[in-house]
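Students often ask why inverse folding is considered easier than folding. One informal answer: many sequences map to the same fold, so there is more than one right answer. In these notes we will look at a single instance of the problem. The structure comes first.
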C-alpha cells in the first residue's frame, strides 16, 4: 500500500477548494490525481479533517494464539507426527501448506532430515 500524501498537500487541496476552485483545477495545479481531490473533499466534509486514516493492521492469522499453542505443544509431545496428522488431531480448517508455514515461521520449528 502506498504511503499517504503529506498533510501539506491535503490541506492545500481544502484551501484551494474553499477559495472556490474546481476539483479539476486543484488537481492540475497541485499535480495530483482527480480522485485524490475528490477523496480529500469527501473526507473533509464527512470527518472534518484531512488526516490519513490509521493502518488496518494487516491480515489476521489463520491460526489464533490458542491454536498455535496447541500445535506447538502437540509437536513437542510427539515430534514424529505428519502435518496431516496434526491437522486431523487439532481439527484445523486450513491447508497443509498454511500449517507448514505457521510451524516454520510463527513457531520457529523446522523439519530436519537425519542423515542416517
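Output (designed amino acids):
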Amino acid at each position: 500500500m502506498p504511503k499517504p500524501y503529506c498533510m501539506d498537500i491535503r490541506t492545500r487541496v481544502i484551501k484551494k477548494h474553499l477559495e472556490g476552485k474546481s476539483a479539476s483545477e486543484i488537481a492540475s495545479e497541485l499535480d495530483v490525481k482527480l480522485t485524490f481531490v475528490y477523496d480529500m473533499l469527501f473526507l473533509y466534509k464527512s470527518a472534518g479533517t484531512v488526516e490519513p486514516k490509521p493502518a488496518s493492521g494487516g491480515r489476521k492469522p489463520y491460526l489464533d494464539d490458542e491454536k498455535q499453542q496447541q500445535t506447538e505443544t502437540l509437536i513437542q509431545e510427539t515430534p514424529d507426527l505428519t502435518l496431516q496428522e496434526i491437522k486431523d488431531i487439532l481439527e484445523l480448517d486450513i491447508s497443509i501448506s498454511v500449517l507448514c508455514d505457521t510451524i516454520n515461521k510463527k513457531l520457529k520449528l523446522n523439519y530436519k532430515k537425519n542423515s542416517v
